[in-house]
Amino acid sequence: MAMFSVEDLSVHYGYVTALKNVSLTAERGQIVSIIGSNGAGKTSLLRTISGLVKPVHGRITFMDKALPHQAHKIVGLGIVHVPEGRGTFSGLTIQDNLLVGGYRFRGGQLHQDLVEQYELFPLLKHRKTQFAGTLSGGEQQMLAISRGLMSKPKILLLDEPSLGLAPLVVNQVYDVIRRIRDSDITIILVEQNARKALSICDKAYVLENGEIRATGTGGELLSSDLVKKAYLGQ
Amino acid sequence: MALLISILTSTLITLIAVIGIYILTGMTGLFSLGQASFMAIGAYTSGLLVVKWGLPFPLACLIAIFLAVLVGWIVGLPTVRLRRDYISLVTLGFGEAITAILNRATPLTGGAAGFVGIPPYTSFTLVLVSAVIIIAAVAMFKVSKFGRQCSALRGDELAARAVGINVPWIKMTAFLFSVAVTAYSGCLYAFYTTYVDPSIFGWRKSADWVIMVFFGGSGSLTGAVLATFILSGLPEILRFLADYRSIFYAALVLLIINFKPSGLLGSWELTPKNLRKLARDISLFMKKGGKNA
Amino acid sequence: AGSKEAAASEIVIGSVQDITGPTSSLGKMVDSGARLAIDEVNAKGGVNGKTIRIITYDTKGDVNEAINAFTRAVTTDKVSALIGPPVANIALALAPISERYSVPFLNLAIDPKVQIKADGTPYKNMFGMQPSADQQGSIMAQYAIEKRGFGKFGIIYNESNAYAVSLLAPFVDTVKANGKTVAVTTSYTANDKDFKTLLNNILQAGVDAIYSPGYTQELILITQQARAMGFKGALIYGLDAGPPFNNLLGESADNIYFINNIDTTEPHLEAITKSVKATQNIDVTNKFFLGYDIGNILVQALGAVGSDSVAIRDYVENLKGYQGLTGVITMDAKTHFPLGLEMVMHTYEGTTPVVLERYSASY
Amino acid sequence: MSLQILINGLALGSVYALIATGFSLVFNVLKFSNFAYGAMMTCGAFFGYFLSAANGWGLVPTLLVAMVSGAVLGLLGQVIAFQRILNNNSSPIYFFVSSITLGTLLEGFVTLKVGANFYNYPRFFESSTFKIGSVIISKSDAMMFVLSAIALLLLAYVIKYTRIGRALRSVSFNRDNASLMGINVTMIIRLTFMVSGALAGLSGVFLGINYTLYPTLGSLVVKGFIASVIGGLGSLSGAVIGAVLLGMMETFLIHLIGSGYAPVVTFLIMLVFLLVRPRGIAGSNVQEKA
Amino acid sequence: MLEITRIHKNFGGIVAVQDFSLTASQGEIHGIIGPNGAGKTTIFNVISGIYAADQGTVILDGHDITRLEQHKIARKGIARTFQNIRLFKGLSVLHNVMCAFDSQTRYSILGAFIPTRLRREEEKHGHDVCMACLARVGMEKYADEMPENLPYGHQRRLEIARALACHPSILLLDEPAAGLNPTEVSELSDLIVSLAESKDFAVLLIEHRLELVMSISQLIHVQNFGKTIATGTPEEVKANPAVIEAYLGKEE
Ligand SMILES: Nc1ncnc2c1ncn2[C@@H]1O[C@H](COP(=O)(O)OP(=O)(O)OP(=O)(O)O)[C@@H](O)[C@H]1O
Ligand SMILES: Nc1ncnc2c1ncn2[C@@H]1O[C@H](COP(=O)(O)OP(=O)(O)OP(=O)(O)O)[C@@H](O)[C@H]1O
Ligand SMILES: [Mg+2]
Ligand SMILES: [Mg+2]
């Protein structure tokens, strides 16, 4: 059985159906990409996995155990979600944002982690007392990723991490993602930037109108007609 | 019959005040906990003008409303540019101040003993006609550009400014409109009870009105009307509960807010279009039900 | 849910009182007193073979509610007579409305404005059943000046309380008429609970006595704070310093003088107090006895003239020499206040009430 | 003599400060004015009276009982009136309405139990005042001053520097994202209500000692609201500074012009204050960024 | 015609914008690019009056608008979209757009209460104009939907429609392509080009999606640490080593 699997998941918002019988799996140290157009349900999928949205039916398992229902317990298992639109705590300083990210840990360990993050994103260190709400869009994105890493994830759910980032930084972020993967962390990556996402991943799913339309390795999908036409703008 | 008329009259006066709150809270998303003080200004001013200076009732009402709007403007001035929480707390302080003045200015207001001898000019017909006209005016306002702008700034003030909405001005307009309506309800009130005293106009009264707006559905004028009838009729119906009356009332409101957060009607309005839709839905439902049976 | 069919064998009277809200302790007391009177009569077979039913209408201390309650009582429930509240605001609001009907309204408001119109004639249905504020205020001043020899007074009163306000002018007028002085007059409002600064202003003036008409709770705070600030002089209070004030104060109530409708030390009143405590677990106050007297006056009226409300009104207007627990009641048709009803000045020794003087209230 | 007035003002200010602290705590986290706070104080005071003081227990047990029952009540209130609104992610407006209603409900229960009667705490001290020079200071005022200072400093420290405090602040900005950090948001919010309830109990007892016990004791909370406007909405230390200022201002006004027009002047000062310094004394001015 | 001369903006110690100047006229598309935190959004915030400039002037059609209140600036013809979408919740899609048109509607407060003829005509006119704005971004069939239920891409389009209803002479677009997939980006670039072709207004465009900004801008301003490090056509900029180092990075 896969380390992480989603089976037959459906989600509704009132009358709107966001997800219909979605299934996917991920293994340790894999990058799994999910691509799809706007409103396909990518964010909803991640929000369901992390416990923010309750599914109508379906099963999510991690290491052969069903996930608990509350978001904070799911984080406790090491499934960490970096939300779309950054979601930094606007009135907290950068440092406090990071420390909240490491909420599960305390003491010296926490400060060690903080130092690590500052090494990864030096910009954050220079600005550590600035309120997150006044950061530029891209700076907030870095903070959000960094804050997610403070939770020491086993599975990292990234929702459009390259959103609003300068090209140079996008490359940096993807480097970071690779590095994270290399440290045996599983990454579920939701991206609009299909080319980038597909070129980095081990496995990818195409989501359309809440349903899985196609699946395969990154390379397979990059060359599929469906993906080319709809997501690569070719 | 006399009882019914008496209850209906006082309910309709409350209704007018609640509509004042609806403009402010339901449409613009602002709170005033001193709204009852504007009712007091309306009541005392019109009463004084008629009793002490012998002005005709309609003129007295007009002057009273004008005065209330003027005072409202001063109260609103520092708050319309601030975060919306401020207006609720500033008006709260204003309420305390008005009560103090009414208690103190004994030669004019009669102080705590109240102001007696107001002639009973408020008839049921007058109140009914006023309520209908005011509801119509507010309904018109809601679908005008001003009403739209009120809703817009409730959604996002910064974006509202960025599309050219003069946010402080719209806030002030909504506030003063609601003040005028509330002050008028005060005039009606004074000439209905023929007696007013300062303790009538505390912040709890304003809070009660806010609750009524929410009970009915914060976005719905129809809801506000419905809720006023239910909630101000309720205590009269619940008389047999005696001491448990206020507990029952509070529990009911809590239930609605918790389990139907959008209130009774949400933002549904009684318009010909919606009514036709409702009728269609009902007939469809009946047909289906018929088939199943 | 009244059974109107049974009306033939039943007479209905109403009691419009603050049963909930800030003044409910007063309203409930009057209501229980009246109920005791009615229950006693019903237990003996009622009047002329009919039982009396008393309906209580809660005003919640709200004028609007009171108007609805009043209207309900006189139009829907068709009561023969009404017992009114001891709270001036409610009675003031109901006075002009009572004029539209012909149901007598026996209340306990002491403010003359409740019973008497601006033109000096009484409202036809309103009757005050205890001495007016004018009478009570001047009695307290007379006592303080004549029996205690005080010459310099400080006053602290609740300006948002109609009852307290009505007791202010008569006291001051009497003091001035006797050539004495009121050195400082200060006021507070319902929300004020900290009187130290106000009292400070009074104490600075070095007064013989502080006069404070107000509700029990305020009197307790004023006593505690004045004593804590080292004031050793006399405190002169109104009706609401009567028991259970002494038990609630939590310290010695020495050197406090107050006016009361009754002599609390009279044996048969004490007996009633005990029995009510035993049967209903109520600590009665003077309002209870006032309510009891009104109840009995109505019973007597019903017995004499039947259940017609106009006849009852006339009967009450001409009431003479009724021997009640609060004294001998003779209605003055000109003022609709009782003539010559006695008031009793009290003080406390420690926490025990002591009777000082009886005054016959002349208007 | 003006020293005496200053002391009286400080005493009144510390009553207001204690009220304002518990009230702004909830405001900080959930961004709404908890209008049930007044009723919570009343309940706390009555619990302290009936469960402890009436049994002849001393001040400290009474305070503890009131605080514990205040905390329990805070928790209950959260479950009854706010939990569902939280779950639905409704706007703060709903909390506001719910809190007013909860207040009415609690007050209703108190009235049911005690009627409009009032009670008096027994004397906890041999003498209720002490003197420094010519200045008379009431013991309960002094205790209140000290306790509210301690409560405030403790809270400020916890909120600013501890893990729980950071969690609390993050919850105040975005509940969903806070839960993504592994924070048990419901627990944090309940904790907030419990602490605020405990403070309500504490203030309740002191209000009771100073002003006797009665069902609408909590209406003094209005002063807490006004204080927090003067201090800057949402700022805890601002609320306290505002409260002390308000207490002193009122006392001076009462001394100078009497109690009658004091609220009017207070209100005018508040208006002018808002015009001149809209963010209050300690409110920070974070510019909104688009 | 928009003339921005030497604007500065500091936040405490941070210099967000330094010495920024730009001139744009109807029909032009200007791109503004630069690393994160370079001060691009701040430039928009200064132009639209959310922040007051520390120095410098913004002149629109000969009028100095630097220190006007926000809503007045908007009424003078500066319309914008936001980096983080800001729509009016609780108003339908059409009403979102109409709000932006309302300040141009002529009926007075009297018309708020009485359905005067002027009001009816103006409302009708506004309705038509706003439907046309929606149609220009291809959103007319969603007119009665609630914006919060729309997918992201549609919300972006709605923001543009709302800005169009302000009858702008300058349109400020802050990262309009963020969150769109490549297909949608190419639709968006067609849309922006077609808007610019109408010659009604100039477009200033902040964007990190190079496929969009490089293909449609006539002139590109590159910002770094608040300063303009390069200005030129897309080709010039792409070849500029300073820009490559600070922003573009080497192509992989
Ligand atoms: N809270 C909500 N209430 C109602 N509908 C919602 C809600 N959240 C999302 N939806 C709807 O569910 C569908 C899926 O939305 P979701 O945000 O998961 O899409 P997405 O793939 O992440 O899109 P994007 O690329 O724009 O982020 C959309 O139709 C959206 O409108
Ligand atoms: N209100 C503010 N207070 C303090 N600093 C601010 C404020 N607004 C912006 N800044 C700072 O100014 C700098 C410029 O921010 P701006 O938002 O303009 O960047 P940007 O170029 O739009 O970046 P991005 O491409 O990431 O959106 C950033 O470093 C940001 O942290
Ligand atoms: Mg998404
Ligand atoms: Mg930006």
From TrEMBL, chain A:
| Species of provenance | Parasphaerochaeta coccoides (strain ATCC BAA-1237 / DSM 17374 / SPN1)
Gene3D superfamilies named in the record:
P-loop containing nucleotide triphosphate hydrolases
Q: Which InterPro entries match?
A: AAA+_ATPase, ABC_transporter-like_ATP-bd, ABC_transporter-like_CS, BCAA_Transport_ATP-bd_LivF, P-loop_NTPase
Molecular function terms from GO: ATP binding; ATP hydrolysis activity; branched-chain amino acid transmembrane transporter activity
Q: What is this protein called?
A: Amino acid/amide ABC transporter ATP-binding protein 2, HAAT family
Specify the superkingdom.
Bacteria
Which Pfam families does the record cross-reference, listed alphabetically?
ABC_tran (PF00005)
What family does this belong to? Belongs to the ABC transporter superfamily.
For this entry, list what GO says about its biological process. Answer: L-amino acid transport
Q: Which UniProt keywords apply?
A: Amino-acid transport, ATP-binding, Nucleotide-binding, Transport
Boundaries of every ABC transporter domain copy: 4-234
TrEMBL record, chain B:
Q: Which GO terms describe its cellular component?
A: plasma membrane
Q: Does the keyword Cell membrane apply?
A: yes
Q: Which Pfam families match?
A: BPD_transp_2
Where, per UniProt, does this protein localize? Cell membrane
Keyword Thylakoid in the entry? The reply is no
Keywords of this entry: Cell membrane, Membrane, Transmembrane, Transmembrane helix
Specify the protein's topology with respect to the membrane.
Multi-pass membrane protein
Which residue ranges does UniProt annotate as crossing the membrane?
12-33, 53-74, 86-106, 118-141, 174-192, 212-234, 246-268
Tree of life domain: Bacteria
User: Can you name one GO molecular function term for this protein?
Assistant: branched-chain amino acid transmembrane transporter activity
Q: What PANTHER family does this protein map onto?
A: HIGH-AFFINITY BRANCHED-CHAIN AMINO ACID TRANSPORT PROTEIN BRAE, HIGH-AFFINITY BRANCHED-CHAIN AMINO ACID TRANSPORT SYSTEM PERMEASE
Task: Give the protein's recorded name.
Answer: Inner-membrane translocator
Q: List the lineage, top down.
A: Bacteria, Pseudomonadati, Spirochaetota, Spirochaetia, Spirochaetales
From TrEMBL, chain D:
Membrane topology annotation? Multi-pass membrane protein
InterPro entries xrefs:
ABC_transp_permease, BCAA_transport_permease
**Record's keyword terms, sorted:** Amino-acid transport, Cell inner membrane, Cell membrane, Membrane, Transmembrane, Transmembrane helix, Transport
Which GO cellular component terms, listed alphabetically, does the Swiss-Prot or TrEMBL entry include?
A: plasma membrane
Subcellular location field? Cell membrane
Please give one Gene Ontology molecular function term for this protein.
L-isoleucine transmembrane transporter activity
Keyword presence, Membrane: yes
Q: Transmembrane segments in this chain: where?
A: 6-27, 34-51, 57-81, 93-112, 132-159, 180-213, 225-246, 253-276
One GO BP: D-alanine transmembrane transport
What family does this belong to?
Belongs to the binding-protein-dependent transport system permease family. LivHM subfamily.
* Name this polypeptide is given: Inner-membrane translocator
Q: Tell me which species this is from.
A: Parasphaerochaeta coccoides (strain ATCC BAA-1237 / DSM 17374 / SPN1) (Sphaerochaeta coccoides)
Automatic annotation (TrEMBL), chain E:
- What keywords is this UniProt entry annotated with? ATP-binding, Hydrolase, Nucleotide-binding, Transport
Q: Name one GO biological process term.
A: D-alanine transmembrane transport
Record flagged with keyword Transport: yes
Q: Tell me which EC number(s) this protein carries.
A: 3.6.3.17
Q: Name one GO cellular component term.
A: plasma membrane
Q: What is a single Pfam family found in this protein's UniProt entry?
A: ABC_tran
Annotated GO molecular function terms are: ATP binding; ATP hydrolysis activity; L-isoleucine transmembrane transporter activity; L-phenylalanine transmembrane transporter activity; L-valine transmembrane transporter activity
Q: What is this protein called?
A: Amino acid/amide ABC transporter ATP-binding protein 1, HAAT family
